[in-house]
Amino acid sequence: MWHITLYLNVDMRSYPLPCPFGLLQSLLQFYFNIANFVKTIFRNMNKRLLQFLGAENITQSQLAEVLGVANATVSNILSGRNRPGFDFIESLLLHYPELNLSWLITGKGKMYEKDPAAAVEDGFEANGGASSEFDTLSKIRQSAANQRKIIGVCVFFDDGTFQDIRL
Questions:
Q1: Which helix (H) or strand (E) holds 127?
Q2: What pLDDT, in 10s, does the model give residues 62-116?
């Protein structure tokens, strides 16, 4: 049987901590299981973020502009090269409060906490019949719609996959 000794460093001194191989093996297995779980979550999270962009009808560069990050940051997250950090997710939720965090991270539940139209109505009623945020958002979407032409459609399937169709 193997015998491994770990060392605890305290105040520039090393103290040996005998560790049976079975315990070390269990700890390493636990670490790798957690690491694989986190990888899986983030790998699928970028697909859900793509679905969200399609549902909101915004591009990567528009999202980057809204969140105040570089275009490359969003591109690298969507491609799976980088993982989104806390600041990115926090900014995303501040700018899109109707987005369901649980859905974004785990894929469970619906994309939106509430129907976006219902969220707008709630904001409208809460502000005494006037929602300046809604008016601003409406103007931005309307001006963007007037300047853009549809060049493709993205179809999302219930198994989490999607197909991009260029016209």
A1: none
A2: 999 999 999 999 999 888 888 888 899 999 999 999 999 888 888 888 999 876 5
DSSP category for residue 85: -
Pick the CATH number of 44-140 from 3.30.390.50, 3.40.50.720, 1.10.10.60, 1.10.260.40: 1.10.260.40
CB neighbours of 167 closer than 8 A, spacing ≥ 6? 150, 151, 152, 153
Output DSSP code: residue 112: B
Hey, CA dihedral for 32, 161, 62, 115, is it positive or negative? negative
Give the DSSP letter of residue 161: -
pTM over 0.90: no
Nearest CA-CA partner of 105 in 118, 120, 92:
92
